[in-house]
Structures are given as C-alpha cells and as structure tokens.
Amino acid sequence: MPIAFTKMQGLGNDFVVINAMNAPVSLDAEQIRALADRRFGVGCDQVLWVEPPVDPSRAQFRYRIFNADGGEVEQCGNGARCFARFIHEQGLCDQRCITVETLAGLIELILEEDGQVTVNMGLPRFEPSEIPFKAAKRDALYSLNISSEEQVSVGAVSMGNPHAVLQVNSVDTAEVARLGAAIESHSDFPRRVNVGFMQIIDREHIRLRVFERGVGETLACGTGACAAVVIGRQQGLLDERVTVTLPGGQLVIKWNEDEQEPVWMTGPAQTVFTGEIEL
Ligand SMILES: N[C@@H](CCC[C@H](N)C(=O)O)C(=O)O
C-alpha cells in the first residue's frame, strides 16, 4: 500500500508528515529510516505523524515525532510549526489555536495572521534526572569529559527533549561535527542529547548551530533554539526576547526566566510538495 505524505520545512529543518487521523499508520524503525533517506527515500530530518489524541478532552491531535535514525522522540519545535500549518492546510481544524499531545506533554500552536506560527513550548526543566543527565546536583554549567585530555563546559536542559548547550566564540569555526557527535552519545546523557553551539551577538541576538540527536547537524532546531536562549538567560547573558539566527533562518524565542512559565517560539513553516511512496 503506498503511503501518502506531505514534505514540509521550517527553516530548512525538513519533515515528512503523515496523516494518520482516519487510518492508523504503523511504520517500524527501518521503514522510517527508508522514508528519511535522502537518496533512496523522500529525505527528511524527522518523520511526523498526525493522530487522534489519546485524551480528546485535553487536546485536538496527537503529534508523534521520529528522528531520521528511526527512533521516536518527545519533542520537535520546527515540526510543531509545520504540524500547525499541515492541520490548517488539510482542513483538519479551522481554529487558529490548537492544543496537541506529544510524548513530552501538551503544547499549544497558534497560527498568526502573517502566516508565522507561535508555539507554547512548555516549561524548561533543569533537574538532571528530568533531562536526563548524570550529575550529582543541578548546576548552571557542567564540565564534560570528551577524552582524558579534553573537557567542555555545557549547560543542560530539557525542552521535553534533552539539550546540551556550549557557548562558542564563533559558530563559523565551532567543531560542530566532532564535538556534536562526541557529546550526543556521551555516557552522561543516558538517552543521548541534542547539542547546541551558541554564539552570543548581543543580549537580544544569538547565532546557533545544532547537532541533533538521531540526525546530525540540521539547518535549524526549534527546541535547540529554546534551550540555548534558556541557558543563556539563566547565565544572565540574554534578555527576555531573543532573535536566534540558525543556518536556515531566524526564530524569535521568548522566556521570562520564571521556571513556572513556558518558553514561546515564533517562526515560519512551509509545505514543499506532496506525494505517495511504496515502502
Ligand atoms: N528538529 C527538532 C528536534 C527534533 C528531535 C531531536 N532530534 C531529538 O532527538 O530530540 C526541533 O526543531 O526541535
């Protein structure tokens, strides 16, 4: 049976979106990898499924996320904006504000008048056990051993999914591939981790590159942008509203530093093409 899909992108972080509202879809990890393959499949960083919610009294949809390596994960920010646009374009819901279930909890998607999408990304979590990260106690920065001769300093936070953030002098020269791969699978992050390289331009602007868990470096990472701003803000380096420049474009992230208040992300989302594929 061919599978119908929509190819979407948010700042060049790209997705294969599958509508499983009417008929359940079941793909195993090998089939997800085949779909995501850029030479033999459609090609994407993540595969997203739109499903009916488990609890319709709390949410209109269930949003499931699979990395290109086939693993299911908790959260995806750029995907959330594409999810909102997909629902609207497919006529699945005409409300401009929708609530969706994810493995990380509920998130809220708002379609703006100008076509951008704002997402309530939920609360950042800093307790090591919630990230998860092996540390004796919560700290602003942790020293991570890359080898016996090399240590790096990272901030760690969960935006529903795990993130480590390194501050660098320049994202142009940061060793994203080498350090990203080493930190992504570091034994102190038992579920692996997304790794952000943050260059602070000023209190309202950062540049960021992200080596994503289960994918490698992508053109943008929404949860990575939230994580970087939250970490930069906790270190007293950033203001409440920050523009994040990623290789694929810009996001605006807002967080008022109250740990009981959510992080907000605004940015674009676009459909690229639709198709069918036999797996
Ligand atoms: N591209 C995403 C994050 C996708 C999931 C991530 N790779 C993980 O494994 O947690 C985003 O825009 O947030």
UniProtKB/TrEMBL annotation:
Site positions for Important for dimerization: F273
InterPro entries with a match to the protein in the record: DAP_epimerase_AS (IPR018510), DAP_epimerase_DapF (IPR001653)
Protein EC: 5.1.1.7
Gene3D superfamilies documented for this protein: Diaminopimelate Epimerase, Chain A, domain 1
Localization terms from the record: Cytoplasm
Predominant location: cytoplasm
Binding residues annotated for substrate, in chain numbering: N13, Q46, N67, G77, N78, N161, N194, E212, R213, G222, T223
Pfam family, one: DAP_epimerase
The entry's keywords: Amino-acid biosynthesis, Cytoplasm, Isomerase, Lysine biosynthesis
GO CC annotation terms, alphabetical: cytosol
Pathway(s) it belongs to: Amino-acid biosynthesis; L-lysine biosynthesis via DAP pathway; DL-2,6-diaminopimelate from LL-2,6-diaminopimelate: step 1/1
Any one GO BP annotation for this protein: lysine biosynthetic process via diaminopimelate
Family of the protein in this entry: Belongs to the diaminopimelate epimerase family.
Summary of the function given for this chain in its UniProt record: Catalyzes the stereoinversion of LL-2,6-diaminopimelate (L,L-DAP) to meso-diaminopimelate (meso-DAP), a precursor of L-lysine and an essential component of the bacterial peptidoglycan.
Protein name: Diaminopimelate epimerase
